[in-house]
Request: fold
Amino acid sequence: MSSYLGLRAGDYEAKVSSFGGGPAELRFQGDDLLAPYGDNGFPPLGAQTLLAPWPNRIADGVFSHRGEMHRLDISEPGRMTAIHGFVGTRQWKVDTVEDTRVGLSLDLPAQPGWPWPSEYAVTWELNEKAGLSGVMTIRHPGIVDSDCPLGIGWHPYLVARGAALDECILSVPAKSCLPLDPQRNLPAGPEIPADAVLAHLNHGVPMHGVWLDHCFGNVASPAADGMIRATLVDREGRGVELRADAKTKWFQIFTADPARREGYPGLGRAVAVEPMTCPPNAFRSGRDIGYIKPGETVQFQVGVRALGE
Reply:
């Protein structure tokens, strides 16, 4: 059973779910910044869940590491893939609860096709200026004496201060698009310019009627604070900013849409902007995979804040 942990700082308020390790709600001055699901219990369409030890899909659930084949359970039967790792569908342990900060942890034992036990922790902190910040920490405890592959991501559905998606403009700092097979959503060719799929994605795309389930790469260099930013704003410039650290090399952008029989509960159309350290099928292609050795720790930082008064 999920528990919801409330946070408050200035005009911000949030609820963090112990299931999936992510925020179920985030509001500023009463306006939604993330698609809420607090009353539903289970995160719909992966909303705000943490993605590890891989984001996105692995074809047929099969990959090779250091000359050994591994076969994961198929978690997306319709496409015969293993999707989004393990941690987003687990109940996390609540370690600390403060007015503006919560800490959760998850000890993940070996899984079918995944022989590496791992230790996960996440801290969510609310600040009256910076909004919501999250730090996920992954540790290889060395129970298995070999390194393991690693990819990380996050699955937030952005909401521009409660505005309908069709009234909003999306900006994501990516210059290329990795074509995906429409049947299985797996890479299907070399990268092409992002503008060939969605013109002016870097500078702002009106989302009226736009449907996406696309992977974008060639992400811009981080700002001076080490973070990469995407925004969703209404016509007055009020909205939400997503930030993710420099490990972010890719964004999967997905539009939930009732017209495609996959609407977001209570909202209908909603857009997920998913920062990822590696692209779909990375454990097969080898592209941008990270590796973590016994005893090592890796962190991934994300955040969300309001834009406009």
In short: Helices lie at 282-285. The two ends are 37 Å apart (CA to CA).
